[in-house]
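Hi,

I'm pasting everything inline rather than attaching a file, because the server keeps stripping attachments. The sequence lines come first, and each chain or strand is labelled.
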Amino acid sequence: MADLSVNVCGIDFKNPIIPASGVFGYGREYEELFPLNKLGGIATKGTTLHLRTGNLAPRIAETPSGMLNSVGLQNPGIDHFIDTELPNLLTKDLVILANIAGATPEECAEVAAKLDATDVHMIELNISCPNVKQGGAAFGTSCDMAAEVTRKVREATKKPLVVKLSPNVTSITDIAKSVEAAGADAVSLINTLLGMRIDINTGRPILRNNVGGMSGPAVFPIAVRMVWQVANAVNIPVIGMGGVSSGRDAIELMMAGASAVQVGAAIFTDPYAPVKIIDEMNEFLDSKGIKSVKDIIGTVKPW
Amino acid sequence: MKYTQGSYIITEKMAIARNIYSFTISCPEVAEAAVPGQFVHIRAKGFTLRRPISICGIDKEKGTLRIVFEIRGQGTEEIAKLNKGDLIDMLAPLGHGFTVKHGAEKVILIGGGIGTPPMLPLAKIYGEKAAVISGFRNSSAAILQDDFKAAGAEVILCTDDGSAGIHGFVTQPLKELAEKGGISAVYACGPMPMLKGVAAICKENGIFCEISLEERMACGIGACLGCACRTKRNDEEYFAHVCKDGPVFNAEEVLW
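And the predicted assembly:
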């Protein structure tokens, strides 16, 4: 039994596996299938200052080894999260990363300030949602904007601040360095890649939003590359995600430089994926005689 | 247990019409929990997303479920390759089912094409109190008519081309029955234009109406918010989710 615990920004995780924001709601639906305390943490559904209804359906499309989504940050608003969902999550033994978003830096800061007064463990600031017209990816594609929103949120909270980065940029390392300089305690990546499918029988895009975020195993090699590049460019921890669907994938992402790993679309294929990934990581480490998962972080030996 | 995920044995497979298959699946704990109108979320080998398929039969004594589905794309084509004796990976039973009215005198069940299967569990409950109006493109696409008769229901078949039964849409016989009166409830599943027509007739005649919707879906349990559907609650627009709030909705809640 290898030691799977990791520490990110001073927060202890019993294992490095975290369901990614958006796939797991606030945890209630999956509690029916397994106890949440098996997980290292949970990244909650992206939550904004006020309720958002999200985009019109269809919001989902299958792609080769992956999928597109354009949910558009549907959520009940931060007050509902704090009053109704957070108390339930706080009874579980896992790290809560409260994922937040907003249309302006000020809105993001206001949401963060509300969370600062709660017992959430970390705040994950989404500057990379591809499915909303204001804010979202617009913050995440310019170094100046990314830094500004990070700075505003930084001023609003003392909680460890993780900034979630978009892969839909020319240089993700430049964005990562900008948010590090603006006070981020960690970065998480990659959010989804902007994609599109068309129904050739109707000539209409499958998604009502025309375009959406692509995730699933198809994006995994891009995630490995970007995690590796960012881990080499910044001095803050990197939480890796993007197409992870097995323990081997999680190990690979950690070797690339991730200190913890989020799991997204794989949960739709197999709702037990996070639990299986934890078991598979343990088996791999045992088979190699590696005592702690911490010993593999960033150990890739590039040619 | 509300729902569970597991691999279950297919005990019977039949091709019942062109590209339409019937599976009987041995899954005692799922059958025990299932109610009419719910669905199962099936993993298709090689695909990221599961495929939601409505439940067509619940046998709690034998511990089996029956599903009837059409090959619509590559995912359902992969599921159709499974054979008797193979394991099928299901997350089930899911969703909010139909409201059964125990004192009902007469109910109408309406199925359009591959929307017909979820009506069969209701026909088994209501028996001779049910009239089943189902509509298909043509006579060779018509399914489950004998099953509805065996349940004791009155069967009214409609085809678009007149090759069997009434030449026309299901709304025609529904309108006649609704105007005669004495109907306690109408339940429907099928294409959106059909459901819209059914809902309008029920509203006009003041009849309780529940409809089953379909939408592209990811998690199937209400976490990802992928399968949004515009509804109204307390006179406010509300984006409900077909997987958890539905697939069955009161027709008056749906914003068409």
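The mean pLDDT of chain A is 95.

If the labels don't parse on your end, tell me and I'll reformat.
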